[in-house]
Design goal:
By secondary structure, the protein is an alpha+beta fold. It contains nine helices and 26 strands. It is elongated.
Length: 477
């Protein structure tokens, strides 16, 4: 049986009960405060399957005219309203042929399942079935700043108020890597480390482009910085994002495209043999098997592949593309914009121990956190304007800001200095800040580390575009 639960009402929701938002009690809560229980969401899942799944889909993604009940579109539509608004919309429009017939408890259970599906945490008390009580529960697409880091929120608040104030416990080494005779390292935004501790660099052929170059862009160095090998000559226009997966395959994106070349993602084994290619050469457009501007790639332990696509602010795609381990297209999500779940230049990817996908939403000066199906879970701004990010096995989060500037225009992010911020992917607290060495960053579009990785001992490697090469950062004794 069809229902209209949030159908066209999703778009109309913002205008539907605007007055209700003004009646919130002084002890108003947020959906981030644990306003339902796990058991209630389980009952709601069963009720949803029986009454709602036909229209809105088994995964709440929407079918046909029925809008999604989970993910960015849903969150964007209801952000700022209340659970009372959502409850009344649901109760008075569903099921389609018999609205209001499920009983208040069933409607509350279904909404508990909707909250769980959107990543909101469970608590100890069930979601109320009374509209007047639900009117005191605010729907926040993003975790409110007071609850952003849980018990550690004062530290996150400090990061926002004084974003460049954290200590710098690192010493910088700019001469660690020893390229082969006659080779000078060029610009780079990609660096990664394999299981042997060898460091891989995606070098732009000694310059800031590999177009027309016969040099190898993929360079391997041992743990002491000694050159081992290079490969990939003639394959790339503009090496950009880089990762090493659990099988020690080296993945590199070619962000630009021209004359039937570029806009692809390549995976190599250690010898330089191509073991997988995603996209079509010179694609330049966003499709299930083509990229416009692939900026970053990430591979999970089970082989699932995520690619960030979109490097130009104001035009082209801004999306995440998901593939299975064999390179088969699974899904894509994301649209251009500054709203919840929207993206503008998704520039870098990382994954924490919980399997949450961190997306460096560079032009929006934030990290957006998704589950692996594209549901928005959180949004963090305390790590500044992310060009690169890496999360280690202990959930230490390393974020490189190579663009923040005070003047209006490109990189405008006043009050935030360029550099590397180190913190926690678990609670969002920033604990260290390594300032960029550029003396006048307001005069340049980029400087300092753009790509970033860290070894198991916490040694950081930052791939630089303006200063060229890769810097090494080691904790001071």
């Amino acid at each position: 049986m069809r229902l209209r639960t949030i159908l066209g009402g999703l778009a109309a929701g913002a205008a539907m009960m605007a007055v209700a938002g003004a009646t919130l009690a002084q002890d108003a809560r947020s959906v981030w405060d644990g306003v339902y229980t796990t058991a209630q969401a389980a009952r709601g899942e069963a009720a949803y399957a029986q009454n709602c799944g036909f229209c809105h889909g088994a995964n709440l993604a929407g079918t046909g005219e029925a809008k999604p009940l989970a993910g960015p579109e849903f969150l964007s539509s209801w952000n700022g309203l209340t659970m009372g608004d959502l409850f009344e919309r649901t109760r008075t429009t569903m099921p389609l042929e018999r609205p209001g017939t499920l009983g208040r408890e069933a409607y509350a259970d279904i909404l508990a399942y909707v909250l769980k599906s959107n990543g909101f945490p469970a608590g100890e008390v069930e979601l109320d079935r009374r509209t007047e009580m639900l009117a005191a529960v605010r729907i926040d697409a993003f975790r409110p700043s007071a609850a952003l880091t849980g018990t550690a929120s004062p530290a996150a608040a400090t990061a926002a108020v004084a974003p460049n104030s954290q200590p710098n416990p690192y010493a910088t080494d700019l001469g660690f890597f020893k390229p082969p005779a006659g080779r000078t390292l060029g610009s780079s935004s990609g660096v990664a480390i394999d299981s042997r501790g060898h460091i891989w660099i995606a070098d732009r052929c000694g310059a800031n482009s590999c177009a027309g170059s016969s040099l190898d862009p993929i360079l391997e160095f041992d743990a002491q910085g000694r050159f081992v090998q290079g490969f990939g000559a003639g394959m790339f226009l503009f090496p950009h994002g880089m990762t090493v997966d659990s099988k020690d395959r080296i993945w590199v994106t070619d962000q630009q495209s021209k004359d039937g070349k570029g806009a692809q993602v390549f995976a190599f084994d250690r010898t330089g043999k191509v073991v997988m290619t995603l996209g079509k050469p010179g694609g330049g457009v966003a499709g299930p098997d083509t990229f416009a501007e692939p900026t970053a790639v990430l591979v999970t332990k089970d082989g699932t592949i995520f690619v960030a696509d979109g490097h130009s602010n104001g035009k082209g795609p801004a999306r995440i593309v998901k593939f299975d381990a064999g390179g088969r297209f699974l899904k894509t999500w994301g649209e251009r914009g500054p709203g919840p779940g929207q993206l503008e230049v998704p520039h870098t990817l990382g994954m924490d121990s919980k399997g949450r996908l961190f997306v460096g939403d560079r032009w929006n000066d934030r990290i957006q956190i998704y589950d692996q199906e594209g549901r928005l879970l959180d949004s963090w701004t305390q790590f500044s304007r992310p060009s690169g990010l890496y999360i280690d096995r202990n959930d230490v989060l390393y974020v490189a800001d190579s663009e923040s500037r005070t003047p209006q225009g490109y990189g405008h992010h006043p009050g935030w200095a360029r550099g590397i911020r180190v913190g926690s992917a678990r609670d969002g607290v920033v604990t260290a800040f390594i300032p960029d060495t550029e003396s006048n960053p307001d005069k340049t579009a980029t400087s300092g580390a753009e790509g970033i990785w860290a070894d198991p001992q916490g040694v950081i490697y930052g791939a630089q575009v303006l200063q060229k090469g890769v810097a090494r950062y080691v904790r001071k004794p």
